[in-house]
Amino acid sequence: SSELTQDPTVSVALGQTVRITCQGDSLRSYYASWYQQKPGQAPTLVIYYKDNRPSGIPDRFSGSSSGNTASLTITGAQAEDEAAYYCNSRDSSGNHEVFGGGTKLTVL
Amino acid sequence: QVQLQESGPGLVKPSETLSLTCTVSGGSISNYFWSWIRQPPGKGLEWIGYIHYSGRTNYNPSLNSRVTISVDMSESQFSLKLSSVTAADTAVYYCARLCKESYYVGGFYYYYHYMDVWGKGTTVTVSS
Predict the structure, then answer these.
(1) Does A86 contact B45 at a Cβ distance shorter than 8 Å?
(2) Contact A99 B44 (CB under 8 A)
(3) Is A42 on the interface with B (CB under 8 A)?
(4) Contacts with B35 from chain A: Cβ below 8 Å
(5) Measured in whole angstroms, how far is the alpha carbon of residue B103 from the centre of its chain?
(6) A28-52 burial by CB neighbour count: b if 16+ within 10 A, else e?
(7) Distance (Å, rounded) from C-alpha B46 to C-alpha B36?
(8) A92-96 CB contacts, 8 Å cutoff, 24+ apart
(9) How many other CB atoms sit within 10 Å of the CB of residue A102?
(10) Which residues of A touch B2 (CB under 8 A)?
């Protein structure tokens, strides 16, 4: 099992807001980054360092962190946001990278 | 912009060594870290390790005894070798650029990481 824990599945109605969470002790010390992966495609970075979005990522994607939990929020979810989302940070030693188990987002 | 392309055999026999190469184009291999990540069929992402252009490496402890990552600056490539493979090593293998940046708080520097450029991935099947 991963040192970063994510809910396996989350659903959201079209146009509504959804929060995807990532829990782990290392998140008290290190920021998480978030990746979107659509079927058959490579992951794409959507959020890094607090609440930064790479060029081309819509501003409906935002990030936050509190205690041992990092969150990815999609405000006004669109059909094209249906995908798996993975968080990434350090492990408990702080020396190695680790991914969360992933959250499959369904847009209803 | 920077693009990454994985290459290597799609089929490897059990107990043999898996070898993959990632070619970096459209940018320099210098001043960055370069990572390998894999994804078994129907499962999540697993970080394998990374290498700095200087040659410094860092591996997933669960794979450490079997993994070697190297860099060839002259060819703008970095490579993965995974020895003694089994069916459990069957996966899509991705290479990615790992950015390490810092911020300064209270007299100390802290670092954050993210992987901003990914290759399309290559499927490796371990089977006799």
Answers:
(1) yes
(2) yes
(3) yes
(4) 97
(5) 25
(6) eebbbbbbbbeeeebbbbbbbeeeb
(7) 9
(8) A92/A3, A92/A24, A92/A25, A92/A26, A94/A26, A94/A29, A94/A30, A95/B58, A96/B47, A96/B58, A96/B59, A96/B60, A96/B61
(9) 26
(10) none
Instruction: For residues B71 and B57, give the distance between their C-alpha atoms in angstroms, rounded to a whole number.
Output: 10
Residue B42, CA atoms < 13 Å, CB-side half-sphere: 1
Residues 57-96 of A with CB under 8 A from B: 84, 86, 88-90, 95-96
> In angstroms, rounded to a whole number, what is the distance separating the alpha carbons of residues A29 and A70?
11
The partner residues of B105 in beta bridges, in order of sequence, read B108
Taking only the tens place, the pLDDT of each residue in B46-102 is 999 999 999 999 999 999 999 999 999 999 999 999 999 999 999 999 999 999 998
Q: Is the pLDDT of residue A49 over 80?
A: yes
Amino acid code (one letter) for A31: Y
Find the closest chain B residue to A48 by CA distance: B114
Considering CB atoms only, which of A49, A84, A86 is closest to B114?
A: A49
Q: How many residues does chain B have?
A: 128
Cα–Cα distance between B1 and A59 in angstroms, integer? 22
